[in-house]
Design a protein that fits this description.
Blueprint (H helix, E strand, L loop, with lengths): L3 H4 L6 H10 L4 E6 L4 H6 L11 H9 L4 H6 L7 H15 L3 H14 L9 H11 L4 H9 L2 E8 L16 E6 L11 H9 L6 H17 L4 E4 L10 H14 L13 H20 L2 E5 L17 H6 L5 E4 L6 H10 L3 E4 L3 H4 L1 H14 L5 E2 L9 H24 L5 H19 L4 H4 L6
Parallel strand pairs: 1-2, 2-3, 3-4, 4-5, 5-6, 6-7, 7-8
Length: 447
């Protein structure tokens, strides 16, 4: 990868610069992605304007007041590139200094050599992106440039492109969403579970008994974890109270991907009943469980406070839970949770680029009280625009270098110890949590 000087990223501390040079040569596990298959990525159009419609720069654009319809038009490939650029250009000053667009531009600089997007560069940048969008791009980027040995990819679907399961031996290792098994979220979870167990499921008892065999089926296909939906699972309701709700879904939900309307807390009650069955299955099968916490656009993110999940950590002490995004902005709470519960890990995915300063401040504090095997530093959290993931990895390595340099300068660590700790947070901790080895990841295909 390019040097910090080539990327225009200043680090004034000599210790941090030395640490970065060594950290940049370490292998990494990308511990949270939604990464599409490479064949899908290279089959789709790319350009310098459409990439701003993706989630992370879109956060800033929407928050600045850009209408959603205007944002969506940036990726309308039926419109000429120059028209879409004219839509984006006046908005760029509103977000240029924000960390999330900066991560995207760091990835652009690393991959294509452009340090800015303006009237004189957007066409040439588009041409460079299109020329590089070819088979082999994943190997060139993830393996050769970034030294990423594996990416944990969360599947919104298990069959339909581009969400089909990664093939055996892929560097993309699957995790699955709760809603693929929970009919309170999606009625097509019912036929999915029925296919796994090979029989019709007519009652809630039938369905709950089938949850573990269905999850075991996907575990045999390579799934290593289950991601809960954003709202915390509540107390488990009495089965007789929610059984009629399941019967309604069976009667009304055929052919739909969304469950029929449930009212007065019915959906939450059914979700909680099935959610606890899934957690018992994860406990039995040894599957890891993770959940979104903290900031999320377009929802009342107070419902994603990591403290709301504490009852689950207590009830299921053998399940290893990951707190995704470290609860940002509740990063201190997340740290205390990880200190308090042996079964809770902190995953810094996305936080490194949402607010690098907050991420550094949090990490500096966690290293004082959170066991160092329980911090996972990197996850790009992208699906299509892998340019953002590259920039997020650069942010991550810079943040690690700066935080660890403070420990060295204050006499809390040697430089060699700091690099070893960075290696644990970039690779070893995620590998240990999921039972992976370097040798086992060496021969995987970048597809």
């Amino acid at each position: 990868m390019k040097t910090l000087e080539e990327l225009g990223v200043p680090i004034r501390c000599d210790i941090a610069r030395r640490l970065y040079d060594r950290i940049a040569r370490l292998d990494a596990i990308d511990a949270h992605e939604h990464l599409f298959a490479e064949r899908f990525r290279v089959s789709q159009p790319v350009d310098a304007v459409a990439m701003f419609q993706q989630q992370y720069p879109a956060l800033g654009l929407l928050a600045s007041g850009m209408p959603a319809s205007e944002l969506d038009s940036l990726a309308d490939f039926d419109r000429p590139l120059d028209e879409r650029w004219a839509t984006l250009k006046p908005r760029l000053d509103d977000i240029r200094g924000l960390a999330l667009p900066r991560a995207l531009m760091l990835g652009i600089h690393e991959l294509y050599g452009f340090d800015r997007i303006d009237d004189g560069s957007y066409v040439a940048l588009t041409e460079a992106m299109q020329a590089f969008n070819r088979p082999g791009i994943y190997g060139e980027i993830f393996r050769d440039r970034c030294r990423v040995k594996a990416a944990f990819v969360q599947q919104y679907n298990s069959v339909d492109p581009p969400w089909e399961m990664p093939p055996s031996g892929s560097f993309r290792i699957a995790q699955m969403f709760e809603n693929l098994f929970n009919v309170a979220w999606r009625s097509d979870a019912l036929p999915r579970v029925e296919r796994c167990v090979g029989r019709s499921l007519e009652t809630l008892d039938d369905f709950l008994d089938a949850v573990e065999p269905a999850m075991a089926h996907y575990q045999r296909e390579g799934v290593i974890g289950i991601k809960l939906m954003k709202q915390a699972i509540g107390e488990e309701p009495a089965r007789q109270d929610v059984a009629p709700l399941f019967s309604r879904l069976v009667a009304e939900g055929e052919g739909k991907t969304r469950s029929p309307e449930l009212v007065d807390g019915e959906r939450a009650a059914l979700r909680d009943s099935i959610g606890h069955a899934m957690l018992r299955a994860a406990d039995s099968l040894g599957l890891r469980v993770m959940f979104h916490s903290g900031m999320r656009p377009a929802i009342d993110f107070r419902s994603t406070d990591p403290n709301l999940h504490v009852p689950l950590f207590v009830k299921y002490p053998r399940i290893c839970f990951e707190v995704f995004h470290c609860g940002m902005p509740w990063v201190r709470d997340a740290g205390m949770i990880a200190m308090s519960f042996p079964n809770v890990w902190l995953n810094m995915c996305w936080t490194q680029s949402l607010s690098p300063r907050m991420a550094r401040s949090a990490l500096s504090e966690w290293l004082e009280h959170v066991p160092h095997n329980k911090i996972i530093a990197f996850g790009g959290d992208s699906a299509f625009w892998i340019e953002h993931t590259v920039g997020d990895l650069i942010h991550t390595r810079v943040n690690l270098a700066k935080v660890l340099a403070e420990r060295v300068s204050e006499g809390e660590s040697t430089e060699d110890e700091a690099v070893h700790l960075a290696e644990r947070m970039l690779f070893d901790n995620a590998a240990a949590l999921y039972g992976l080895t370097r040798h086992g990841l060496e021969r995987r295909e970048y597809n």
